[in-house]
């Protein structure tokens, strides 16, 4: 919910490809309204998703003309239920054709370029220079094919000229240039976006992806952290870049800062790995024991992680594994108690599954990717009629490694329906694909793995990993799960069963 601008950019990103251009325009800092800032704070503090939705609907009703608020609301509610969100704004647009907010969001949520153009025309007839009308028509033009790409760029530049304090058209233009392959021009535009949102990590993500090397990425991160020293995303990204450079002392220093800001098991584990690779065994064990105390207790991860090889001949190694096993047993007992507590509800209706209202029902972008083992091409179109599970992951991602055994158990379960297929999709890999097969062998992974692309990850809205996407038999994204969940196997059983009915 913090990254609303990214949602619109990703929607346009899949459609916009334009000629190269420089960032020959000035920008102003984007200043969210008090209501938008209040909404962000309220949703960030909500502990449960249902609580977040209640907050969103409350703000949706209270601030009908605040575009920032309504875009944040529409973003989340559309992911929860696209049809419901679209119908809400369409109804408001029909009741008040002069309602710019409702007209724009209805068009933005429309899946048809013709519908997008229709709603854009409503805005452009009143004001040919309308920011929102031009932003909307840009997507419609580009979706029509190559013939519309030039018009799309013109529309985006027209929107920027109309209001250079709003970030969405700038972000979309940068993504257009990045997809075209004009890295320098795209970086210039994203630098402008960073000027507009100096405390937002999203513009920096774009610039890092365009950076020529890890040293350049670290410099960009240092500039950002000078203004935002406690930004968890920036600290973790910097630590990863330093690791790739084998800058162990720099990596350790950044991870220590990260752990002081976000004291979690996975961060403590990564810091322990850093110390192990730097040859500082005492500190490595200290932080690995801390990781176990904080709930990072995947025993197979500790046993198989190559980062920890320097520790295995130390007398403390077996003590560490024993501690991890104890923590894991405690975790499993807590899960068992929770399951028993909810058993009466499940037993009352053993066939209960998530309702249709909870499904996303979003079109799944088509893809054609190489299978790592066979080198055969696999396309989404060829899997129509089956439930498809895509797990986006990378070898360097700790939570991905934790999730893999759970997904593998689901994949190898003899009771799994034959019309369910599972693919790991390797993305954001920083050191090539040569180590993938040994890694998968070490992890004892049986499900097939596809060689993904960053563009595909973007098309699927993957901003962090692991992200798992469940696609129904008609090619619609039904569910999306982000991060590690110990109940993944049971959750997939329930959801695939409901989709096969």
Any chance you could write out the topology, listing elements then pairs?
Elements: H1 4-13, H2 34-45, H3 49-62, H4 67-80, H5 82-95, H6 100-109, H7 113-126, H8 131-143, H9 149-162, H10 168-180, H11 183-196, H12 202-210, H13 214-227, H14 232-244, H15 248-261, H16 265-277, H17 281-293, H18 299-304, H19 316-348, E1 362-363, E2 368-371, E3 377-379, E4 387-393, H20 398-412, E5 420-426, H21 436-443, E6 449-451, H22 454-459, E7 467-471, E8 476-482, H23 488-499
Parallel strand pairs: 4-5, 5-6
Antiparallel strand pairs: 1-8, 2-3, 2-6, 4-7, 7-8
Could you list some keywords that capture this structure?
501 residues; alpha+beta; eight-stranded mixed beta sheet; 59% helix; globular
Q: How does this model look, in words?
A:
The chain contains 23 helices and 8 strands. By secondary structure, the protein is of the alpha+beta class. An 8-stranded mixed sheet has the order 1-8-7-4-5-6-2-3, with helices on one face.
Could you write a compact summary of the structure shown?
This protein has 501 residues and is α+β, with helices and mostly antiparallel strands. Helices cover 59% and strands 8% of the residues. It contains 23 helices and 8 strands.
Instruction: Give the helix level as a range of percent.
Output: 55-70%
Using only C-alpha atoms, the radius of gyration works out to 24 Å
In which order are the strands of the major sheet placed?
1-8-7-4-5-6-2-3
Q: What is the residue-mean pLDDT, rounded to a whole number?
A: 84
Largest sheet: 8 strands, mixed
Strand percentage, roughly?
5-15%
Unreliably modeled segments: 1-21, 342-357
Helix/strand-derived category reads alpha+beta
- In total, how many beta strands? 8
H/I helix tally: 23
